[in-house]
Amino acid sequence: MINIRKLEAELWESADLLRQGSKLTSSQYCMPVLALLFLRYAYSRYKMVEAEILQNRPSRGGRVMPVEPSDFAAKSALYLPREAQFDYLVNLQDNIIDAHLKTKDGQDINSLGEAVNNAMQLVEDQSEQLTGVLPKTYTMFADDLLRELLRIFNNKTIDEVGGDIIGRIYEYFLSKFAKAVASDDGVFFTPKSLVKMLVNVLEPTQGVMLDPACGSGGMFVQTGDFVNQAGLNAITNMTFYGQEKVEYNAQLCLMNMAVHGLNGRIISGDEANSFYHDAHNLAGKCDYVMANPPFNVDKVKAESASAAGRLPFGLPGVNQKTKEIGNANYLWISYFYAYLNDHGRAGFVMASSATDSANKDRDIREKLVRTGDVDVMVSVGNNFFYTLSLPCSLWFFDRNKNANIRDKVLFIDARNYYTVVDRTLNEWTEWQLRNLQAIVHLYRGEKEKYQQLIRDYIEILDNVSVPLASERLTEVIKNGEKEYSTRFAACLEEQKKQAKDAIADAPRKDKKKIEAEWKETIEHWEDLLETAHQFEWITEKFGDGQYQDVLGLCKIATIQEIEEKNYSLTPGAYVGVAEQEDDGVDFHERMNEIHAELAQLNKEANTLMVKIQKAWEELK
Predict the structure, then answer these.
(1) Which CATH number is associated with domain 2-56+65-161?
(2) pLDDT at residue 184 above 60?
């Protein structure tokens, strides 16, 4: 998280530079800066792949054979000609004219802006799906401004951050500079931890994947990562399709996919409006559907939506006077189901209100539940989005559920399970994501996957200076003892004490270095302690791998039970509320104490007010 925050802070600096040095609006300067960041990240990935290629590179006459575009294509990576590499642009001399540079078409390059435009064109030439996508408007910036932007993005932080980097940064831009854009039509971008949760539950391996509201392409990127980490090849195993009404979002998506070595067909503009178009003709053909659609969209033309199809359960409520659908949430829900083939899975983000909305929504939900294809429902707490503080829900469909859970739905209430990033943002860590995924595995009867998680935990937790003896592991899991966290907490306190002493004793000239070294050590032990807490969280609930309903967290409900609750799909309605530990404080006694404290404070306030009034009178 630290690396991402550092990157965001530097992005803020770059945006300030643009705002001060140009007359562009936020929507105008957003794309050029993101494209520069794309170029920087592409260069980072290029250098990493280049190193892999050169490891076993044959040589002729004592000289290693140079890398070629085909070498990068074989590794599903983007090849960058020298003039398009970030370090080339960063190191260009101040007087561009004196460098006698030429464009790919042989034209003179007379400014840094022209050099960057040329770089963007060279990148487009390497990727068919990027054709016409990258901006080539950098001559509108003064060279010194561009040079400063290049300097800002020339840092190692970008090399350390993976995943949907462009979508994350674009989301940050929206939150800082364009809140009006962010709230327009409910558009906002999906945080990485929610995308990972969708992917983890769906577990894509091969086939056709569609995101009919694809934004900056985060679903595609995380799916590609999941498939590759499973030892498969996302390029050959997956076929990606996307629809995105906002064209600059589609451009970001294409950039994002290209830099991660993914190919896909993304349609944008009016024909990509999912309410009125199945742009790829994929109804009934998808193995996977993932999306974070805009919530609570109104004024959708009912007749046009009906004519566009993909409504197996009928239209939601229609205003007969205006012939418009007042809330399109159940249009999206119907689409996601309709796109699936007979073994397809869908996972999507949805407004929390949709889990128990009434009238026609409720009727559609009943039909949906009765198919037996609703698989998992997850409640998510507040502050998971930069631009939206409200809670949401994750819905999962599976057209090919195991027979023994065909008439059941797993409900997970994760509203109180998260990690605080800062005052306005929460997320799930990697271990928290895997714990939530483990609950789904146990629900599906996939005990071996749960056991692999436990082995992964133990491998990490035992690989320290105070390992827990292997013969005690079964006992720890069985009894829910906090062996690891107790040991690590003691080690952490000892490390903090040593750090304090070492910093105090260090010469002034070495203090910063010593502080940095000890900070890294302490963060290591803090990470281990948090890992131990997450290990204990999952094993205290499910031991060595037996699913059970956990009050306040999860419950497997039958369709009959769902019918008894009027087809509500709100997890909280099923899992109940966890018992609160008794803190030993008598409620009535404490309330009397608070009342007495308040009375005393009011008395003191009145005394102060009299003194202030008297002092004021004396000043007149």
Answers:
(1) 1.20.1260.30
(2) no
